[in-house]
Amino acid sequence: MEGADPHDATVAPLPNVSQSSSHRGCFDLLPAHERIHSPQRNISHNDAQSRVRNEPLPNELPDRRPPAHQAHSRHHSSPISVTTILQNKPPKPTMDRLGLLATAYGQPNKHSSQFRNPFGGRPWMEQSGAAAAAPGAKGLKGIVAGGITGGIEICITFPTEYVKTQLQLDEKGATKQYNGIMDCVKKTVKTNGVLGLYRGLSVLLYGSIPKSAVRFGAFESLKGRLMDSNGQLSTSGKLLAGLGAGVAEAILAVTPMETVKVKFINDQRSGTPKYKGFFHGVGMIVRQEGLSGVYKGLTATILKQGSNQAIRFYVMETLKDMYKGDDPSKPVPKMMVGAFGAVAGAASVFGNTPIDVVKTRMQGLEAAKYKNTADCALQIWKNEGPMAFYKGTVPRLSRVCLDVAITFMIYDSFMDLFNKFWR
Q: Does the pLDDT at position 244 exceed 80?
């Protein structure tokens, strides 16, 4: 009835039952010595009619009143059902909500000394109730694990990076030096020895550690903020987190590192190399071109790294979700992580090699002949044709697939280790 207290549950009597001699209430049918009365309340005629109709009595209905009202009622009387009275059983004590939750999970009550957190794999929920760990904590772990990963990975894959860069710098015409991957390797080893394939490693080693640290740290931070209440990333969330990671690493680490690396490799192509080492080379570049000399091709690098990481992280996270199926806590074996990484790397190569070629040209020693990134792309198209945008695809494909596979395997291993000991 409108305006009535919703917590004041009552049951209307059956019409004219009390007036009918042939339909007396069941309570009235009981002999006097079998009529049981509760110390708190008597079983009324209306209650007896409700029991006949198999309906819950008012004191058997769920109590939805505010906690203060419930506490007041418990202080004065305890609700006892007719069934409890008839069976002569004492009422069972009620259990608090967390106790019920623990029971549902098969855990002891929290007041027991054996209480265990029902959210096993997510210990932070015991204190904060959050669906995921704080993004700041995961971001810091990502920075440390990413930095270690970057240093290990670049030492393994640098020769393929060297060959790729040489082929991308090799233009048509009289200045063309190499006829393919093996020709580049043979001529480099013949001229500079096997260590010639590692020319410029120091530059990438100094740069790969902060680059990988920024990339994974930014991704973990963005992922923590974009996840839903179930700890899952949507399609747009995966792309956005990867894009943000790529842009962050492009500005903070990749552009200066790549510019110096390309200039070092390009310097070796000349008859009289002028850079004697990393610090000597960087010093010469800054003195001759200013600080902007190590930030050549920033726009192309942002486009390349942003698209790179958006594709890689999207493919990687999607493949992991497909493998886990309906069990988000299912662990992914490291070999599967490596295979997923290789697929993600291949997808990024075919997706943005043209941008990578433009970026490499903009960072070379002859970058001054291009007005800007768009002019560089236009001149490559006019002078060398569209296939020039896919120069170095094969060596880049082999390098990137190996690179991304190793990177994700090492990174996942360190994150698993950190999650055990770093809370």
A: yes
